Amino acid sequence: MDQPPPGAAGEPALPAPMQAIERINTLMGTIASWTLLAMTLIVGFEVFSRYVFNRPTIWAWDINVQLMLLLLMFGVAEVYRQDAHVRVDILISHLSPRGRAMMDVLFAPVLLFVSFVLAWAGWEYFVDSWQLKEAASTLFAPPLYPIKATLPIGGALLLLQGLVKLWRDIQRLRAA
Predict the structure, then answer these.
(1) Residue from 105, 109, 99, 80 nearest 168 by CA
(2) What is the rounded CA–CA span in Å between residue 86 and residue 138?
(3) How high is the mean pLDDT of the chain?
(4) Burial of 124 from C-beta contacts in 10 A (0-12 / 13-18 / 19+)
(5) How would residue 10 be classed by pLDDT, with cut points 50, 70 and 90?
(6) Tens digit of pLDDT for each residue in 44-97?
(7) H/E element, 165
(8) Which one of 30, 115, 122, 160 has the fewest CB atoms closer than 10 angstroms to its CB?
């Protein structure tokens, strides 16, 4: 794409609160990256334990399921910030940078609505789980409410990153 990446030369300077949002999302993306490494090590340990010692763990599956949710919810805003999400570029790839910015502005309300709903519903889901002290229905039975807290956090971070991108796109349209 011809659009400059966020923070590139020629991009409008972000106000301080928006810079803070981007720094937080970058940190969350780093945490998500390390989570993937942890998941890989846990799966490796489980396979080794199961097939070499014939002693599977009772915790590897539960922990990896929870880490997968953390990976997804902590990484989604950073992926959006980097414009690295999956999308169909058949139409957009043929547009000018101004045209792409216009399309992004037109579709921003959809992302903002979805991320708001995710944050709102995720919060209710987390609170219900916390009040019940919900645990997984497995032998290991880890608590579920801590990991369910990633739903409203990830939704809120995506919502904030969507607002930053909308601001950037509006600035691109004004500059063009």
Answers:
(1) 105
(2) 34
(3) 91
(4) exposed
(5) low
(6) 999 999 999 999 999 999 999 999 999 999 999 999 999 888 777 777 888 888
(7) helix 150-175
(8) 30
Model pTM above 0.85: yes
Sign of the Cα torsion 130, 133, 137, 142 reads positive
> What count of other Cβ atoms lies within 10 Å of the Cβ of residue 176?
11
- φ, ψ of residue 84 to 5 degrees: the values are -105, 10
- What does the angle CA 34 – CA 88 – CA 168 come to, to the nearest 5 degrees? 70
- CB 22, CB 5: distance < 8 Å: no
Name the amino acid, one letter, at 23. R
Report the distance separating Cα 9 and Cα 146, nearest Å: 40
Q: Are 146 and 103 in contact (CB under 8 A)?
A: no
For CA atoms 161, 166, 169, 170, the dihedral sign is negative
SS (H, E, C) 14-31: CCHHHHHHHHHHHHHHHH
